[in-house]
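User: I'll paste a sequence; please echo it back and then give the predicted structure.

Assistant: Echoing your sequence first, then the prediction.
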Amino acid sequence: MRGFSLLEMMLVIAIIALASVLAAAAVTGGTAGMQLRSSAREIAAQLRFTRAQALASGEPQRFVIDPHAHSWRAPKDHHGEIPRKLGVAFIGARETQPSAGEGAIVFFADGASTGGRVQLTVRDAAWNVDVAWLTGEVRMQRAEAGQ
């Protein structure tokens, strides 16, 4: 009887797996694109955490980002790093800056904030994490670098 050998079957499976990985990388923008989106989600989550801490404690809470050091800090000793291959920009109220080169968004006990934007970029892709000053709402949206 004619059929396929185990080696031929394994070769076909390997080719299909390789094609799937390449297709997934092309659709998501590769590993840099995945890091970009993942980092933006992490920052958005930490901004929401900071707002929740302000609401729960009844005291203002501060999220601090240092674009040059690629790092951020949130209440309760939450902190993290942003991959070096990503560009980081912050736009926010100058009055809340803890020190030169750092930016901060302060959330108040009623949920409002000083507002601001953290933009992460890689090549020509970008994600904006925006914080509304009146409501403290945190939103993520895809953008083009430099917008």
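The first helix runs from residue 6 to 28. The chain has two helices and eight strands.
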